[in-house]
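re: ur question from earlier - yeah i can do the single chain one, its not a big deal. heres the input i used so u can compare w yours
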Amino acid sequence: MATPWKLKRLRQCAKCPWKVSTNPHDIPNGYNVDMHAALACTIAPPGELGNGTGIRAMACHEHKPGEEAHCVGWLVNQLGPGNNIPLRIKMMSCTNVAHLKLVGKQHKTFEDTLPPQSGSTKPVRKSRVSKKRERLGSS
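and the output i got, formated as tokens:
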């Protein structure tokens, strides 16, 4: 059995990109759309058992390097609709996961967290996960 552990952060922050009400450009500490889009690598292909490289997590932007905490919006998405099987297994030993708290309406996909392209309501780019969902005929 895995060693019990606790999440550092349980409540979603005010400017979490997973909140529908958040404009990504309002995220503090120098928002960068390319860095945001690169976080697509933290989104697991739904239902896959992983590729043997471990779990890649999105950190909350409110925490300094070296003091990172999981992004609560990302965590809840990947445990729920994102269907991140390796993360679900890891969380079985987390003693405070039941206390996670989201604030407001949430985006359904990572792509929805990205700002729209100029003059469009579409996200900046599609991740490999969205492309796979399209091939499978789900959204």
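Residues 24-70+84-134 form one domain. not sure if urs matches, ping me
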